[in-house]
Amino acid sequence: MTSEYKELTNYQKTTLDNGVRVITETVPYVQSISMGIWVHSGSRYERPEVNGICHFIEHMLFKGTDKRSAFTIAKEIDSVGGVLNAFTSKELTSFYCRVLSENTELAVDLLADIFLNASFPDDEIEREKQVVCQEIHQLEDSPEDLVHEILGIRFWRDDPLGQPILGTIPNIVKLDRNTLVGFKNQYYTPDETLICAAGKLEHDAFVQLVERHTGKFPRSKADVYKIQPKSDASAHVEERDLEQVHVCIGMDGPSAVDPRRHAGYILNAVLGGGMSSRLFQEVREKRGLAYAVYSFLSSFSDTGIFGIYAGCDPERLQELLNIMGKETLELSRSITADDVSTAKSQIKGNIILAMESTDSRMNRLAKGEYYFGRRVGVDEILAALEAVTLDELRETADWMINEGRYTIVAVGPVGKDTDLFGYFRGL
């Protein structure tokens, strides 16, 4: 596979008078449209005393507006076979839907209504507190999810970036309508809002629809709370009565705009990004140490985390950590030209396959605008990946995999006095 990729696309961007940016990508050969309203709001912008509020607001926007009840919202999207959903991340919140292109006006009306006119009924707030608390309990009952959650908290100790997206039960229980509405007014501002759409649409007609439904959104500027994160090297054990020990190890990684990010993608693919990766082959295929083992790279606007995960029987923990440590520490010296070629092809294939989804295209529009202020085309990404050299990969690996900067967390039947640093030989 070469780095060439001819995009059959029509990208356009319009900024409304109130500051809302409308970005579209016309895909004429599909019959649907994926649309999302994105706001620069997430758990890293929450003060500790209201941690979890962004995710809670996300839930509440589906609980009714001045003209729609929660049931009406659900029925309207179901009646056209559409999908309506939302998510909150560390830095962004998105409300999105996918419908047939003939239902574009309904999608715009519905999303704009819940985004701008949510009523935050007191009875719904109290009921949704129970729902979110159950969601937190569900995460705590999933050891693989829990070990990642603890890793984030420990890796960015005392920093908002490490706060859990769901928040804490004490915080959720004490939320009230005034606090929710005040936070929404602070962060859900036109200058921090994007409306992105991909699919069978015409840009100017879509902009007119959006302006009709959001034109009264008053211009204002968000008061963003953010501090520069710093990682914190540490080891942490969470004793649980489980069949396995779940281990997660985090190291510094490139940000979403760091020139080294493409090298990071390739290193992630080589170490633990697929069935042919080092960790999968050495840990699972050759030794049967774990069912799930992988590496990951999570990038944010100004920092990132490169990590590895596996779960194994308690009596084989030392063996697992030794293998994981060996493969990770030796990555910069052991990586070969063949590894790089395979990883590049894998990543390119994943990117191009994702372009067959209007949801993926819509997501790409939003993230390109937030992180770069422009559209980042697939052809540009593929060319950047292709240009990464073996020397650049080795330099990036040496920077990320540093003995003095990593955090390790274990959840399961393992004693709190376990020397995790000692088990992970060499680090």
TrEMBL record:
Highest taxon of the source?
A: Bacteria
- Which molecular function GO terms apply here? metal ion binding
Biological source species: Desulfomonile tiedjei
- What family is this? Belongs to the peptidase M16 family.
| InterPro entries tied to this protein | Metalloenz_LuxS/M16 (IPR011249), MPP/UQCRC_Complex (IPR050361), Pept_M16_N (IPR011765), Peptidase_M16_C (IPR007863)
Q: Which residues form the Peptidase M16 C-terminal domain?
A: 174-346
- Which protein is depicted? Insulinase family protein
Enumerate the PANTHER family for this protein: METALLOPROTEASE, MITOCHONDRIAL-PROCESSING PEPTIDASE SUBUNIT ALPHA
Query: Which intervals hold domain Peptidase M16 N-terminal?
Result: 21-168
